[in-house]
Every structure is written in C-alpha cells, then in structure tokens.
Specification:
This protein is of the alpha+beta class and about 1300 residues long. The protein is built from 47 helices and 17 strands. GO terms for molecular function: GTPase activator activity.
Length: about 1300
C-alpha cells in the first residue's frame, strides 16, 4: 500500500493483499483507525500496550494495515494522521518499542519497507470539504491521478466521505498548511531513517523509490501562479523533497544504472522550478569540492561532501570511487541549460560558473615543503562545459532579462577560463577560434559587454595564441563605457564598478599598439565604435579642443588599411576624456596612474604628448573641484613628468612656465581661503610640485616674472603667521594714515624702519619674534600655532631654501660625484678635531700640518651653523708678500652642508678679467706715480729747514781682521736653526728696504720737499683674524645681531651634535629589496643563497632601476651595506631622493678576519640584517604560479623586525611578442605585531595612494625601469605614512638645528658678545 504514482513510474508494484480497508466508508475507517491509534498511542498519562501483544507477523501486518489507512484520511482528520506518524516513528527509531514478532522473526527490513510504503500515502494532494452541502448522508468523491509517462489510462480511485460541514476559506488554508507540515515531518523521518537505521540494499532501494515517486508526483506539477487559494504542496515542499532526495540518494551509495536513469528522466520534468536548479547546483558543487580534495590533495576542496542550501547544511562522508561516480551523474542530470526557461537558464549557467571557480581555486594555497598542485587544464573544463557555454553565447538573443543574464554569465565563465595560464597543454585551436568569435559578438552586445569586461582584466596577460588581435574589439567595447557610459549600461551593474573594469582592461592593452605597429586591422574592426569626439552632445567645448589636439598628435597618412598604431588615438581619448567625466574618486586616481604610464610609454613616439597631458591635468586641478585624494595623485603625476622635461623642452617650451604659474595661483588661493585644516596637504604638495618644475633645467633663470611669482607665493607661505596680526591691525593702520594726512609729516620712527616682513628670506629671529607676536593674539593667549599653518610655513621655507641654494647647482657642477651628493665632501669635523687636539698640545704634527690655523663656529639666526676656518697658510700666493687672509666657510642648514673658500683682496680685478690687459703676478696693484717738484713754484730759491735737508759729511773707518778667512759665515752659524734663519731673512729683508730708502734720499735734492708715505701694518701675518674680518665685513657683527649670531665653543659635545646633524639625510633615503624567482614556489635558499641562473633580461632590468656604483668609491647613501660585504650596488638619485636596491646576489661574506659585521657572517643572516628596514620588495618572477604565496614567504624569511609591506612582481610575458611585462602588486595583511597588521590593511584598502603602476597593468620594456622605480619610491613613502613614521628630511634637520640653538643660546651683554668674537673658544 503506497502512493499510486510510484507504481505508475514502474518503481514499485502494488500488493493485492494490502489496502483491504479502502472499500469501507470514510466514517467507518475513521472510527476504526481512531480507536486503533488511541490504543497504540494513548494519551498522556496512560501506558502504551506492551510490544508482546503483537504475537505474530500477521498480527503486526493487520495493525499496520489499519495505521496505514490513517495516511489516507481527509484534511479534517489530520490529528489522527499525526498520531499514526508518531507511532511509526517510534517503531522505527526505538527498537524496544517495536512489535515483538518483528524482532523475534528478524523481519526488520520488511517492517521498514512497509512503513516507507504507507508513509507515501500522506503525500497525496487532497482538498477540504466544499463550502455547500448540508446533507449529512455519506457521499463518494473521486480523486483523479494523472499517470506518469508510459501509463496507459487515468486512474480513478473511489473514496467514501461524509458530507462535511461548511468551512471558511481561511480554515481550508490552515488545514492544507497542517497537511504540509505533516509531510515535512515524514520527510524528516525518512532522513533520520537513512542516517540512523541499518538498511539493507533492498530497503535502501525501496526508500529511494518511495522518495523519488513522492518528489516526482509533486514537482512535476506547474508552479503556482498565485491564483489558487491557500498553499500548494509542490511549491511548499519543493526544498524539503529535493534536500531529502539528494541526501538519501548519496547516502545509499547506489550505482544502479537504472535508478540513475530514472532520476535523470524525472529530473528533467522538475527543471521548470528554480529551486530544483538551485538544489542541483549546490549538490554538484559539493561533489566537485570533494572530488578536488581526492584529486589535488589537502589544500583543495573539502574533507566531506557538504551540501548547503538555504541555510541547511548536510555533510556526507562518502567513499572516493562513489564520489567520482556520483559527481559525473549529478553533473549531467540537467539538460543543456539553453533549453531551460530563461530564469532557470541563468541559474544553471551560474551554477556552472561556481563549479568552474572551484576548479580554478586549486593551487591557491601552497603546500609546505611540497609542490603545489596546478589547476586542471582549460581544455578539460571546456570538454565538460564548453558545449553548454558556447551554445549559450551563440544562441539567438531574447528579450527576457533572465536570459540575457545567463548569456552574459556564460561569457564571463569563458573569459575566466581563457584568462588562466595553461602550464601543461595549450588551448585547442578549435576552442580559441570559437572563443574569439564569441567575443567579437559579445563586446558589441549591451548585456554581455559589462560581464566580459569584468572578467577580462587578466586576459591579455596570458600566453593565449592570438589574443592581442582582439585589442580592436575591446577598444570598441570600452568606448561604449568610457568616457561617458551609454544609458543602456547603467542598470546592469554598478556604474563605478563597470567603469573601473573598463579602466583595468585598458591598462592591459594601452601599450600594445606600439608593439604591433605593423599589424593591419581587419576591415570592419570599428563596427559599433562610439567615438566621443564625434558626438557633440556628449562633450563640451574644452573636450572638443583636446580631441582636436590629440588628432594632431596622432595624425597619420591615410591608408586603406589602418594599422594598430591608429588605436593610440582612441586609447588616449578615452583616458583623457574619462578624466574629465569621471565622478568616482577611486576611478579618477586609477585613471591618473594610467595616464602617467601611458605618457611614459608613448612619449618616445609622440614627444608633444607630455605638454598636452600636463595642460589637461593642470586645468583639472585649477577647477578646485577635485577631492583631496585625487588632487594629491594628480600632483604625483605632474612630479613624475619632471623626468620627461627633455621632451617637454623640445616640443612645448612654455609648459613648465604655465604649470608653475598655475600652481602659484592654486597655492595662493588655498592660503587665502583660510580653511587649511583639510587643505594644507594640498598646499604642501603644490609647493613640492612647483619647485620640482622650477628646478628642472635652467628655464626660470631668464624668466623674471615667473621668478617673482614663485618668490611671492613662497613668501606668503613663510609669513603665514603674520596674517592674523595684519588683519587685526588693518583698522588701526587706516586710522593712523588718516592722522598722517592731517599732520603732513611722517612720524620720525618711520624714517629708517625696515619693512615689516623682514623674514621673507626665510630665516632669522625676526620671524621667531613675529611668531611669538602672532601667537600672543590667539584666543587662549598661548604661544602655539595650528599644525596646518606650521606645515605650510615649513614647506615654504624649505622650498625657498631649495630655490636659492640649488637652482643651477644640481648635480653639483665641477664635481665628479654627480647627483650622489648635495652637500660638500669637505670633512670639516675631522679638521676641527685635529685643530682642537693641536691647540690642546700646542704643537702640530706632520700629519696635521695642513690643518687650519684658527676655527670658529657660529649659530646664525638659530637656523644656520656656520664654521669659519682660517686657511691663510694653505692658500698659494704665487710670490705675494704678505699673504692675504683666507677662510673656508662651512654652512649647515635644513637643505644640507655647503662649503665656500674666500680670500681677502684689494686689487682691481678688472685688469685680470680684461683680455687686453696682461695679468700681473702681484696680488696688490701698484701705487700711482707723482712728481713732488710740481709742488714748488717756478723761480723760487730753495730754503733750509733746520738743516734736515743737509747731507752729513761724517765717515766711519773700516778695517779687515787678520784671520777673517777663519771666521764662520752667518749661514753656517744658522745650520739646524730654522727659526733663527727665518728671523735673519726677515731682518735682511728689512735692512734691504731701509738701505733702498736711504739711497733714494741720497739721490734727492737736499732742498726737495719729502713726500708723504703710507703707514704700514705692524701686525704679524700669522695673527690675522680672518674669520672676524669676514663676519664683520658681511655685517654679522653689527650690534643688532648680537642675539642672532652666537659664537659656539668647540667642545666634544658640540662636535658630537654636528656629527649627528651630518648623519641626518638631506634627501629621502630609501632602500628597496630586489629578488629573482623562477616561480612562486621558490624557497628561501633559491631566493637568497643559490638562485637559478639569472636571466639577461633581469640584469638589464636591475640596472634600469639604478646605475651600478662601487661602494669603496661611493659618496652617497648606501643603505645598510658597505664594501666589506658588497662591492657594487644599483643606486639612483635625483634632487629629492636617493635609492639603493639591495640585492642578495651582490652580497658576499666578509673576508676572513674582518670583524666589522661581528658574528653575522653567513649570507642569509647578512641579508636579513641588510633588508630589515626595506618597506618595498621588487620580485622578478618568471612563472606566476603561487605568486601571492611568495610574498608571505619573503615576509616570514626576513628578520622579525622586517618592515616589508608592498611586494611588486614583474612577470615577463611569453608568447609571440617580447618586451611586455605584467605587473602584480601584493600587500598581504601580515605583520610582526597588531599595529603592523593594521597598517598593512590600511594600505591595502588605499593602494592607489602610490603609483604610477597599479596591480594588473602591462608595460613595455623601455618604460619598465623608470615606472617600477617611481612606484617603489612612492610605495615606500606610503608605507611610512600609514605607519606614522614619515617625516620629511628637512623637517628633521630643522628641528635638530632648533634644538641645538635652544641648547647653545645665551643672553650676553654687548661687551661679552664682542669678547667672544675676539677670543678663541
């Protein structure tokens, strides 16, 4: 006795010995069933009969015949039915409550089968009694059952029922719902029976056939359209039936081919229901995951079959061979998805997509100390699903939105499959051709294009044969999204996400036209191309001008067959126009990075490109409508373009000037608004960008107007503290002017007063005083400024220092060190130490003979430390006598350390400069000659003046000694006495001068008037105060400067402070790690100690990052390496930064006996110590297998204090073209402590703050080195920002000098001030 539908499916055959009570009237059956049920399952408090009452199997079957009829009762009698369900459930799961005869005779399996049969009767749909019909006589109703396919005739079952009392519609719905709940209860019993009972194979077969028959009888019906009253059993039980059916089917582990064929035939009749497709998708996916675990090991798939649907999870532990069999059979239960209804077609395709993703997940988690498995080949997946997917793509489009969604999903699956690298066997050409044909259609489809773009961001990085020939079709598709999206795409997915996908795909194709310049485009490649410049309604006047300019840049000769290079115009147009139309902040930053890379890529072929892009970005910034994060990236792009100045200078000479003037206006506007709390980073960045363009080349030297604009802008920033005072005193100033007009005379104090802004030059205590005055006007009366004002002031001061110190002086001219140094190489501290030592010992050794005679240090304005060294004895005089005072001046400020040599001169240098005048060897000019006789009047007689002009006639007798030949000469007496000899030479010189003077007087006329002679200096030359003269003549020793010029005592502590100051970097000094890896599975030993053979391309790339320098001769930043462990290292420097690229392959262990590195001598330990401060790692990787895991491995192999956060991977693409590289950037959320993990997460969420390279981009060889270097520098700074460890070098130096000024400042009287100048300290 069971549901007749099961028999119609030929699953089971009716037993004629059963269902004997069905001929009785319903009332009789109800009474009999109720009494038996009450006896077997009494109410609470009454004891149930003992199982021994069932003395024989016949007795058991009679009772079960009665109970089974309880599942056929009308809806109104479901209370009895519920009790019958409980009786059978108790007999199933409580062995001690089963009839004794069943246990005694071993009839459990037959007993279970009868229960399963009779339970199926409950699932017969039935309706409540009609509303009319007051007759109390019994009537018979007939229930018509639709036969299963293959049944001959309809079956009508007579059923006696009494005339029911009238019921309401609400009551009928409640009765139906109660019926459904009882069905769910029975399904739960079925499930528990399969989980807990020990069922034989025959019993399993009965259970499966019963559940399958029940499911087919209900799910074959049409889905309710909502017009029927009350719930519908098939709709309400669909989830439960499918869940129970699939669980029991898999638990049974049946391999009966006939059973599998039957369920496949039945399943087709259910596929009109969406829940059926969802259940199939979940079961197929769970079996797929378990299959992957068996095939690929513990890192793939799941340990059990885990079926998860609508919040229900079922876990099945099935044998391996059955999992394989069931996976294949379940997978093909459904027909070809395009044969389904539109909604189910989409669900089926999405289910296929999830299965494909499961296969693609293989190998994502690497195995320790073993080879990581690779996912299955694309051909394998296409063998399984390719027919369905290609049929879906090529099927005729339909209007239904669900169908379009499914078709688009099929495109997405194919794009994901073909985007995966094939490591064993390439794709079959048949599949490739069908894929390209499908893409050509889909890229011009409104519904499929978004999905294709979303899933093709890595397509062009594969080695897929001929994939780059699809670039024109992708350009056509992208032009429908960028720069302005067509209306039909706005409701598909998120607008920002779709535009971002289009931008990402553009980043992979924008460098390709230059590589395929000789490849012709197919004739109809531009079919459906949307050209923004051709649609006047879409763009404004400015966009049209830009478009026309781009056409001029990429003008080419007309030809019948355009080449790949003609695509560059469309790519540039969509980039630049999108920058003007994009509204998403994230997308705009992404676009700016792409524009940066595109310009670097194409500028060798189109030099005028830089000027056009700079002008466009400049105009965009000046709109003042960009968000702060976008503006900062725009400034970064403009600063990167400084490296392309040679192209700018060649083609667009005014670009730099116009940009600098625009930035001046921009900074002035932000400063004048007064709202710097949120905008001050923009002002600082604008100053930085402005100075970079000012300092490049010498173009501003002859541009006085631009110089004035720059100086004025920086001066406003420097004097930002004074504005509040000026604002407050404006009213008082106007009143003062009114009084002056009345008096007619200016106040006396105004006659010689300096301008108020005496600190425009950027230094001096005058600005400090102004700061204090400004601070005094704060509301709280406290001496403090807002951080944004301080930041702007410090940035302006630094830029002004750069402007006056380094314009035209970088790299240092007449210097062999190039850009490695901005400071002098003069080691003045060693000279100071030697001088201090000689001073204390009152003697100078031969080794220290070249030290300065006097050294004095001054602190100027609290911001500059000036050292003056007297080198008069070291200056070559070329025969001059006496020697002129000479000094070396060493100045230390925020920008660095500089040295000057100065010599005191009184001669006219014009005679040396003029080519017509021969140079004199004397350092002093000759005195003008004059004739004193001209002072005597003609005809007058000479007179005597007290006998002074009378020549004496007295003489001195001379006699020769007898033995004068034996007397030693004076030279012999002075042998070995250099001091006496020098004194003799001096006396001889004086005597000779005296004799010449007397002889000249002797030749004069006695009556001649003597001429006036100048007074000669009686100061010894070795005591000439050179440093005092220098300071005095420059005005530093004026009485007003006694608080600004502080003499410093040369002590050991001061020397230590100066050494610390010299150790502070003048520029950003960055160290970056570089590695070579064959694949993501490279071990630590392969990365550091024993790398595979380095490719020539890698070495070329390494030296494109920086030029090699010998550390033994290097004067610049050298990271943490020295010549003891490294001979050569790649190095790069410009005006703002110094970079060294740590490479383990350049390291070597110290020589034996060299203890400079202590106990750290092995290469891995050396490498750890060298790279622990590197925030960025650059990895050249030949094979991208498990590339992300390599970042984690490098992080863990470094020291515990490693700071690495950003990993830039460069993958050389293989295939038909050489010179293309795929960029991947990884920021793993790992760290040594919670703070570093949080910092990594912050950076990962804001990865676009550094660039220009972004994750997934493809670049060319000629742009690779510069782009990677700029990105690494930018990433290093970003890492320090998110870790709150970034401070600009000039700020650190400024604070250190201010601290020195605070420690050494002293209030001295005027006499003490001058005493300090005269007295050596």
């Amino acid at each position: 006795m069971f549901l007749d539908w099961i028999a119609q499916l030929h699953l089971l055959q009716h037993d004629a010995q059963t269902n004997i009570l069905n001929v009785l009237p319903v009332s009789t059956r109800r009474t009999l069933i109720s009494e038996i049920t009450s006896y077997l399952h009494p109410a609470a408090g009454k004891a149930a009969p003992h199982p021994s009452i069932f003395s024989s199997p016949a007795h058991v079957k009679w009772f079960m015949e009665v109970i089974g009829q309880g599942f056929n009762l009308p809806l109104e009698d479901m209370t009895i039915t519920s009790e019958d369900i409980n009786i059978y459930a108790q007999w199933l799961f409580e062995a001690n409550q089963r009839p004794a005869a069943v246990s005694r005779e071993g009839l459990e399996q037959e007993f279970f089968q009868i229960i399963f049969h009779q339970y199926s009767l409950l699932f017969r749909p039935r309706v409540p009694r009609p509303h009319s019909g007051a007759s109390k006589t019994a009537t018979y109703t007939t229930t018509t059952v639709v036969p299963a396919p293959g049944a001959a005739n309809l079956i009508t079952i007579p059923m006696a029922a009494p005339s029911p009392p009238p019921i309401t519609r609400e009551t009928a719905a409640q009765l139906t719902q109660r019926h459904i709940e009882l069905c769910k209860k029975v399904l739960t019993v079925f499930t528990m029976a399969g989980r807990t009972l020990d069922l034989s194979e025959e019993t399993w077969s009965v259970l499966l056939k019963v559940v399958l028959g029940i499911t087919d009888s209900l799910l074959s019906e049409r889905v309710s359209d909502g017009t029927r009253n009350g719930p519908v059993m098939g709709d309400e039980l669909c989830d439960h039936l499918l869940r129970v059916l699939f669980e029991l089917w898999l638990r049974s582990k049946t391999r009966d081919v006939e059973m599998w064929d039957i369920i496949k035939r039945c399943f087709v009749r259910w596929t009109h229901r969406p829940k059926v497709i969802q259940q199939w998708s979940s079961v197929a996916l769970s079996l797929t995951h378990r299959t992957l675990r068996f095939l690929y090991g513990p890192t793939a798939g799941t340990s059990v079959v885990n079926i998860a649907v609508n919040g229900f999870n079922v876990k099945l532990d099935l044998p391996q061979d059955f999992v394989y069999y069931a996976w294949h059979r379940i997978l093909f239960l459904i027909p070809n998805p395009w044969q389904l209804s539109p909604g189910n077609f989409a669900l089926a395709v999405m289910g296929v997509g999830r299965i494909v993703e499961a296969f693609h997940s293989v190998g994502q988690v690497p195995l320790p100390d073993s080879e990581t498995p690779s996912p299955p080949d694309g051909n394998t997946l296409l063998h399984i699903f390719g027919g369905w997917l290609f049929d879906a793509c090529f099927s005729a489009p339909q209007v239904s939105a669900e169908y379009q969604q499914g078709r688009a999903e099929a495109y997405g699956i194919l794009c994901r499959i073909f985007s995966k690298p094939q490591r064993r066997v390439p794709f079959l050409r048949l599949y490739i051709e069908r894929f390209y044909a499908a893409l050509a259609i889909g890229l011009r489809s409104d519904t499929c294009l978004p999905t294709i773009l979303m899933n093709s961001t890595e397509l062009f990085a594969t080695d897929l044969e001929g994939v780059r020939l699809m670039v024109p079709d992708f350009v056509v598709g992208i032009k429908s999204i960028l720069p302005k999206m067509q209306p039909e795409y706005r409701n598909v997915i998120s607008v920002d996400e779709l535009r971002l996908a289009a931008i990402k795909v553009t980043s992979t194709i924008m460098c390709l036209p230059n590589h395929f310049e000789n490849v012709s485009l197919k004739p109809d490649w531009d079919r459906g191309l949307n050209v923004a410049s051709d649609n006047v309604s879409m763009i404004g006047e400015q966009e049209q001008l830009v478009s026309q300019l781009m056409k001029v840049l990429y003008a080419q000769q007309s030809s019948q067959q355009p080449a790949f290079t003609s695509l560059k115009y469309y790519i540039l147009e969509l980039l630049l126009m999108s920058l003007r139309t994009e509204t998403s902040s994230y997308n705009m930053r992404y676009l700016l990075h792409l524009i940066n890379v595109y310009v670097v890529e194409d500028v060798p072929f189109c030099p005028g490109l830089v000027g056009t892009v700079v002008k466009l970005i400049q105009d965009k910034i000046l709109t003042m409508q960009l968000s702060s994060d976008v503006t900062l990236v725009a400034f970064d792009v403009l600063m990167d373009f400084v490296g392309l100045y040679e192209y700018v200078k060649r083609d667009s000479k005014n670009v730099a000037r116009e940009l600098v003037l625009a930035l001046c206006r921009y900074a002035d506007t932000l400063n004048s608004t007064g709202n710097l709390a949120q905008k001050y980073p923009l002002v600082v960045q604008a100053y930085d960008c402005m100075m970079r363009w000012v300092m490049v080349g010498q173009w501003i030297v002859d541009d006085r107007d631009c110089q004035h604009a720059v100086i004025a802008t920086l001066s406003r920033g420097i004097t930002i503290f004074e504005r509040e005072i000026e604002t407050n005193s404006q009213l008082e100033g106007s009143q003062e002017k009114k009084k002056r007009r009345d008096t007619g005379f200016p106040p006396t104090k105004q006659l010689f007063q300096l301008p108020n802004r005496a600190s425009k030059g950027g230094s001096g205590n005058q600005s400090n005083d102004t700061d204090k005055a400004t601070s005094a006007t704060n509301k709280n009366g406290m001496a403090m400024h807002r951080k944004e004002e301080i930041a702007v002031k410090m940035a302006a001061e630094y830029c002004m220092s750069q402007f006056v110190n380094q314009l035209g002086n970088f790299p240092p001219w007449k210097d062999q060190v190039g850009p490695t140094r901005t400071s002098t190489l003069l080691d003045d501290l060693s000279m100071i130490k030697a001088w201090k030592k000689s001073k204390s010992s009152n003697a100078i050794s031969d080794e220290e003979g070249a030290v300065a005679k006097r050294i004095q240090l001054f602190l100027l304005d609290g911001r500059v430390i000036a050292g003056l060294m007297d080198i008069s004895d070291l200056v070559e005089t070329h025969g001059e006598s006496p020697k002129s005072p000479a000094i070396v001046l060493i100045c230390r400020d925020t920008t660095g350390r500089y040295s000057w040599t100065s010599c005191l001169r009184y001669e006219d240098l014009s005679s040396k400069v003029s080519p017509a005048t021969p140079r004199s060897s004397s350092s002093t000019s000759s005195s003008p000659k004059y004739n004193p006789n001209l002072l005597v009047r003609a005809g007058s007689s000479p007179t005597l003046n007290n006998g002074h002009l009378v020549k004496s006639n007295a003489s001195i007798p001379v006699a020769d000694a007898v033995n004068w030949m034996a007397l030693p000469s004076l030279e012999q007496l002075l042998i070995g006495k250099p001091e006496k000899k020098a004194e003799l030479e001096r006396m001889t010189e004086i005597t000779t001068l005296q004799q010449h003077a007397e002889q000249e007087i002797d030749h004069h006329d006695p009556l001649q008037i003597p001429k006036a002679a100048p007074e000669s200096s009686h100061s010894p030359i070795d005591q000439t105060p050179s440093e005092r003269l220098f300071m005095s003549q420059l005005g530093f020793l004026h009485t007003k400067n006694r608080n600004n010029v502080i003499p410093l005592s040369i002590t050991d502590s001061l020397i230590s402070e100066l050494e610390m100051l010299d150790m502070l970097n003048e520029r950003d000094c960055i160290s970056i790690s570089t590695y070579f890896a064959q694949s993501g599975n490279a071990t630590e030993k392969e990365l550091v100690e024993q790398p595979p053979e380095l490719s020539q391309s890698y070495l070329q790339f390494l030296y494109s990052l920086g030029w090699p320098v010998k550390l033994s001769e290097h004067h610049g930043y050298q990271g943490k390496v020295d010549s003891a462990i490294c001979d050569v290292i790649p190095y790069y420097a410009d005006r703002m930064v110094e970079v060294v690229f740590h490479n383990p392959y350049f390291l070597h262990e110290p020589k034996e006996g060299d203890l400079s590195w202590g106990a750290v001598s092995r290469l891995p330990k050396l490498h750890q110590q060298v790279t622990q401060d590197d925030h960025v790692c650059i990895i050249w990787i030949e094979d991208m297998t498990n590339w992300e895991s390599l970042a984690h491995r490098i992080k863990t192999m470094n020291s515990v204090n490693s700071k690495s956060m950003v990993y830039i991977f460069i993958n050389p693409l293989v295939g038909a073209v050489d010179g293309l590289y795929w960029i991947r950037i990884s920021i793993p959320s790992v760290g040594n402590n919670p703070a570093s993990i949080v910092a990594s997460q912050r950076l990962k969420e804001n990865a676009l703050i550094f660039g220009p390279l972004v994750d997934g981009m493809i670049v060319s060889r000629h742009a690779l080195g510069a782009m990677v270097r700029n990105t690494a520098i930018s990433a290093h700074q970003a890492c320090r920002v998110v870790t709150d460890s970034f401070t600009r070098p000039y700020v650190i130096r400024k604070h250190f000098i201010e601290e020195m000024a605070h420690r050494h400042s002293s209030k001295s009287s005027l006499s003490e001030f001058y005493s300090d100048i005269f007295v050596q300290r």
